[in-house]
Amino acid sequence: MSETRFEFVSEAADAGSRLDHFLAARIGELSRSRIQSLMGEGRVFANGEPRLRSCKLRGGETIVLTVPAAVASENLPEDIALEILFEDEDLIVINKPAGLVVHPAPGHAGGTLVNALLHHCKSLSGIGGVERPGIVHRLDKETSGCLVAAKNDTAHQSLTEQFAGREVRKIYLAICTGIFKKKKGTVNVPLGRHPVHRQKMGIRERDGREAVTDWLALAALPCGTLVRCTLHTGRTHQIRVHMKHLGHPVVGDEVYGKRAGFTRQMLHAWKLGFTHPRTGIPLDCTAPIPSDFIAAGVPADLK
């Protein structure tokens, strides 16, 4: 398997941004720590010169990052049941259950989606490194629903480009607290890491990254309101922070709201649409309404 190459050209608006931040915003499957590691290995160049994470952009630079071919993963395959929504030789779309961690991390060395995929699939792409084979995007542990993984690097890079280019259709269902005064709207406020609580995100008007969520109140429920959220960007905790910004945090979200008797944040990645990397045919997947949503009053046959 050969190395994977990414190339970008910075714009005037990127001037002053750190290079590792710039790359992390454009290559969703690589964490910033992974990008910094690649910088330390001399795999990131700006205008032909190797750069470190402290590099500040001026705008107009040609930036190249290469990811080495994957080595054998130390993660062990585990026979964990998967609900498969679509699968072929290039990719797999699963309905991730709430409570399943996507990839190994401190405190979650096993029992993750990656371990399940290693058991189920003969091969996975290596762009995400040995800890995240096949992982193109992520869902929070408590969020259920559609998640796509790549079986080869060609599919992985195509899907990454579609996510970065905002070509992927992402529709979520959220049960939010209270009753909305308006039927629909758009939240367009930038998000960034909380200045004090580093595990949280927050509204950052001056130095945050663009985050846009369209929302539509679908129905009143005994515990709140069922809301359809369409994401135009893919920031960490985007729906959770935007709904809190509206004054209607997601029910059960103990980070941005309250548990209120629920065992998880009531957020479900309902629909995922993208172009198949090999065939070029549009592919749309829908994850069934989870049982706890149905128990809260959401119709199982919601269209």
Describe what you observe in this structure.
This protein has 303 residues and is of the alpha+beta class. It has three domains: 4-67, Structural Genomics Hypothetical 15.5 Kd Protein In mrcA-pckA Intergenic Region, Chain A (Roll); 70-164, 2-Layer Sandwich (Pseudouridine synthase), CATH 3.30.2350.10; 171-268, Pseudouridine synthase. The protein is built from six helices and 15 strands. It has helices spanning 19-26, 32-40, 113-120, 153-164, 238-245, 291-295; strands at residues 4-9, 44-46, 49-50, 62-67, 84-87, 91-96, 144-150, 169-176, 184-188, 191-193, 201-203, 212-221, 224-231, 267-275, 282-286. β10 (191-193) and β11 (201-203) form a beta hairpin. The protein is globular, with a radius of gyration of 19 Å. It starts with a strand and ends in an 8-residue tail after the last helix. The mean pLDDT is 91.
